[in-house]
Amino acid sequence: MATGEVATALLVLVPLAGAAASLLAGPRRLQRYIVGGTAAVLIIASVILLLDMAGRGFTALSISPPEELSTVVEALGIVLTVTFLYFGWRTRSVLVALFSVGELIMIGLLVASPGSEGPALLIDTLALVLVLITSIVGSLIAVYSLTYMRDDPRRGTFLAVIVAFLGVMNAAVMCNDMRWFEVFWSATTLFSFLLIGHARTDEAKNAARLALIINTGGGLALLMGARLLQYYHDTYLLSDLMAGGAAGLALLPFALLSIGAFTKSAQLPFQSWLLAAMVAPTPVSALLHSSTMVNLGVFLLLRIAPSFQGDLTISAAIALVGGLSFLATSVLAMTNSNAKRVLAYSTIGNLGLIVMCAGIGTPLAMAAAMVLLLYHAVSKALLFLAVGVVKEVRGSDDIEDMYGLRKDLPLVTMAIFVGIATLVLPPFGMFVSKWLISEAAIVFPLLAFLLAVGFASIVVYYFKWMGVLLTSVTGPGRPLRNDASLRAYRWELGALSAGAVAISVLIGPITHYLIAPFVARELLLPGLTDTLTLFTAGGELQAFLLLFLAIVVFLAARLFLRPAGGDTPYGGGEAVDELQVGGDYYLSERSASRISRAGTAASAVLVVLLVVAPLISEVL
Amino acid sequence: MGFLDRVGARSPWILHFDTGSCNGCDLEVWALLTPRYDVERFGGVNKANPKQADILLITGPVTKKCEDRLRNLYEQVPEPKLVMACGNCASTGAPFHNCYNVCYGVDKVIPVDVYVPGCAARPEALIDGLTKALSLWEKKALAAKEVKE
Amino acid sequence: MDPLVSIAILLAGPLLVGLSMGVDRRITARMQNRRGPPLLQPFYDIGKLFSKRPQMLGDLQGLFAAFCLTFQAVAFVLFAFGGDLLVAFFISSMGAVFLVLGAYSAPSPYSYLGANRELLAILAYEPVLFLVIIAVGINGSFLASEAPAGLLERIPLALAALVPVLVILLEKSPYDVPTAHQELVSGPYVEYSGRYLAMMELGRWFQLAFVYGVATLFVSGPDPLTNVAVKLAAAFILLLAAILIDNITARLTRRRMVLFMLTAGVGLIALNLIVLYASGVI
Question: What is the ipTM of this complex?
Answer without folding.
Answer: 0.91
